[in-house]
Design brief:
The complex is a heterodimer of chains A (331) and B (232).
Chain A (H helix, E strand, L loop, with lengths): L1 H6 L2 H15 L6 H26 L8 H18 L3 H10 L1 H12 L4 H21 L1 H4 L5 E2 L13 H24 L1 H11 L11 H27 L1 E2 L6 H14 L6 H15 L4 H17 L4 H19 L2 H5 L4
Antiparallel strand pairs in A: 1-2
Chain B lengths: L1 E12 L2 E12 L3 E5 L6 H8 L7 E6 L2 E2 L5 H7 L1 E3 L12 H12 L3 H11 L14 H14 L4 E5 L7 H14 L4 E5 L3 H5 L4 E6 L2 E6 L1 H6 L1 H6 L5
The chains are: A mainly alpha (331), B alpha/beta (232).
């Protein structure tokens, strides 16, 4: 009964299908596919974390890369200088987002949306400046290299091993975030996005809800950053630069911010196109610009919205032809 | 027994005194109507009590406690609950979710949410997105949100505005039943609606309360008839 209820949820079905599909990729034995799919999972988490803020809570941040970079750098520093293990480094990297989110959130979330966006940009650039200028610790513009995949506890040095390492965290995070959004906490976040002005008159503090949304979003972004540093083995300050904060926004808009799995689809399109069109960088930006204009002007649901609309139309047309009835599937 | 006392409440916008030194009190389980012409300051007064706006001066005492300095969400938690003149719902959420949000504050169980929906006659729209519902149903959802907070004092800002005649009659009955359990303060323009419901009427004009009394007294009040009904 429970299984039937869970499987009735289209997002859960999509996550299960995605998990099985992703689990098969290493069987190809192709290092390029393994690498690019790992990167897809990392970017998907980054985009999903961003959509919690943007799509659900209605908060536009221009500094989301600060969490990604903090997760990546803390994991790198911890594994290089304190304890050589990717798993412990990852946990410490993710946890580093909590104090950062609480401090930045407390200072910026009190303000109206435009000022919040500007303040997040300012804090993001502050983190970037620290990473560039504090050479003795961060390596400056050279960044940190040699982040270990082989540690005291865990050895994920083979492509298959680090791939499954990322996959496990990807699935846990995607499912956890979905359960969170469906929970009472998630309802408050959706209410915040739906009508922020009404919330105080239902007995809820807008600042508190914004703050835990910001922290939850920061945690997932830091997880994606930590996974990124382990995957790449190197981190440089450009992952804290403000333009990097725009990437999850682009993925979210492309995939569809009103659908839970929209950012994942957006990340897939983003990674595929950037990889395929890498040699035609100018054309890629032109195409990206046109795609964003099309999404913002005409297709607010992004590619997910277009797909859902197409499926609905197909279902209606099939139903109208009485195909279901003739097959005895629907009376 | 007194549930709310407002003492010398004032609020100005620039040089304009929207609420000017207003004092009154509400008795528990009494239905009080607040009437007055457009721009009299009725909604501003409600905004001050529920902390949508901060007062320039004055005090608000609720159940013997000074709540003047509290924020809007704390006022709502205490049980001073309001609805809005211009509907303010969570349009992308379902009817059930709209009621669940305040229910999380008041720890109202799901069975009670169901009962509120049944009492208001909106249970068949439970899983529908609020934005897609007709105006009359949305008005009831607004009321449902307020009820799910388990209010001690419910302030309704023009609950009948924009409703069809049949919906108004339905609403009068619902509010009449509600008035036996909750203290109600109703802001309304529709005199027929007000006199059919209220046990006490306060009349506001130019930011001040100019009269207060039983509906039949107010109906005969010469000053009220001059100012509110435009009679010479």
């Amino acid at each position: 009964m429970l299984l039937r209820n869970v499987l009735r949820d289209v997002n859960v079905v999509l996550i299960v299908i995605l998990a099985f599909t992703l689990a098969l990729i290493p069987l190809t034995g192709d290092r390029f596919y393994i690498y690019i799919t790992s990167l897809f999972m990392v970017y998907s988490l980054f985009a999903l974390s961003y959509n919690l803020l943007f799509g659900y809570a209605g908060l536009l941040s221009f500094g989301h890369a600060m969490f990604f970079a903090t997760g990546a750098y803390v994991t790198a520093l911890f594994t290089l200088k304190v304890f050589r293990d990717p798993l412990v480094g990852l946990i410490i990297g993710v946890m580093s987002a909590i104090p950062l989110a609480l401090i930045v959130g407390f200072l910026s979330l009190r303000h109206t949306r435009v000022y919040f966006a500007i303040l997040t940009l300012a804090f993001g650039m502050l983190i970037y400046a620290v990473l560039v200028k504090w050479r003795s610790v961060t390596g400056g513009t050279d960044g940190l290299v040699g982040i270990p995949k082989r540690g005291v506890i865990l050895d994920i040095s083979s492509p298959q091993a680090y791939y499954y390492f990322i996959l496990v965290f990807f699935i846990i995070a995607v499912l956890s975030l979905y359960i969170f959004i469906k929970s009472r906490w998630g309802l408050m976040i959706r209410a915040l996005g739906a009508n922020e002005d009404r919330l105080p008159f239902t007995g809820h503090s807008v600042l508190t809800i914004r703050l835990y949304t910001f922290t939850a979003s920061g945690l997932i972004a830091a997880l994606s950053g930590s996974l990124y540093s382990i995957l790449m083995g190197v981190v440089t300050p450009d992952i804290a630069y403000w333009t990097f904060s725009a990437e999850p926004l682009v993925m979210t808009l492309l995939g569809g911010s009103t659908y839970y799995m929209g950012p994942v689809l957006g990340a897939f399109i983003f990674i595929t196109l950037t990889t395929m069109l890498a040699r035609f960088a100018e054309y890629w930006l032109l195409l990206l610009g046109l795609a964003i204009i099309a999404v913002v002007v005409g297709f607010r649901g992004g590619v997910s919205g277009v797909l859902v609309l197409a499926v609905e139309r197909l279902m209606r047309s099939v139903e109208a032809r009485g195909v279901w009835r003739s097959l005895g599937l629907k009376t | 027994m007194e549930i709310l006392r407002v003492e010398n409440l004032s609020r100005s916008f620039g040089g304009f005194k929207a609420v000017d030194n207003v004092s009154f009190s509400l008795k528990e389980l009494e239905i009080t109507a607040l009437i007055g012409p457009n721009g009299a300051g009725k909604t501003t007064l409600v905004n001050l009590i529920t902390k949508k706006l901060k007062p320039d001066s004055g005090r608000i005492i609720f159940q013997g406690m000074d709540v003047t300095g509290l924020s809007a969400h704390k006022i709502a938690k205490l049980g001073i609950v309001r609805t809005f003149q211009v509907l303010s719902l969570f349009p992308t959420l379902t009817v059930y979710e709209n009621l669940k949000i305040p229910a999380l504050t008041s720890r109202t169980p799901d069975e009670d949410i169901e009962k509120i929906m049944v009492d208001l006659g909106i249970e068949r729209f439970k899983d529908a997105k609020v934005a897609k519902l007709p105006f009359g149903i949305q008005k009831l959802v607004e009321l449902g949100i307020a009820l799910a907070l388990k209010p001690k004092l419910l302030i309704l800002d023009e609950p009948a505005a924009g409703l069809a005649q049949e919906d108004r009659r339905n609403l009068t009955k619902i509010l009449g039943d509600m008035g036996r359990r909750i203290t109600l303060m109703v802001i309304e323009h529709d005199m027929e609606f007000v006199f059919g419901l209220a046990e006490r009427v306060m009349v506001m004009d130019k930011g001040r309360i100019i009269a207060s009394g039983r509906p039949e007294e107010i109906a005969k009040n010469k000053l009220v008839r001059e100012i509110y009904l435009g009679e010479e």
